[in-house]
What we know:
By secondary structure, the protein is an alpha/beta fold. Helix content is 33%, strand content 17%.
Amino acid sequence: AGADTVKRAVQLDLASRFQESLVCYQEGIDLLLQVVKGTGRRPGEGGLAAVCCSPTSFLSDGKYHKQIRIEENATGFGYEKLFQEYLTEIVSEVWVEDPYIRHLYNFLRFCEMLVKGPCKVKTIHLLTSYDEGSGRNQQISGLEEIQQSLRNYGVTLNIEFSSSIHDREIRFNNGWMIKIGRGLDYFKKPQGRFSIGYCDFDLRPCHETTVDVFHTKYTKKM
């Protein structure tokens, strides 16, 4: 577990994601030092592997990094699977930064998850880029329709466009930050409107991607 975390730290470092790489370096080195000192446990016996993989282990103080690798054509990775454990009742504000919000049904499904709770989201901030070419008008009108629909549920959607945005990340005001390599659009296109997985995203095959979860307390600049 420690070696894998350090490898991920190197990947983030090379991608100039220095704050996140620092978290992984610190966690990976700490895990390796524990092995050197001797824990008396083997991986898989409730030792280091269990601590690294359990999302509740560090929830109390936010000192936590988790990585999920979604394999090509994998299923069972709907939005609830990735986000639900971080959407506590105190979450009232959400930030979505993704330059390629093009498949608006995916973003709509994400918003539906927020509306259902158990969180009490009141404001969603979306920062994305304009669709190039003829799709821009459809993108804008679609987002405005989602905006109006959310307003009926007491949720405000603030939409901003930027031509310089590159990173993809989702943040909750309880401090959790989720970075998905492909953003929200990691699902493959369904074979048809009446094929399994069209409505239930847990059953829809995914593109290969990596999900990193951090707490902002440990990613702030020194």
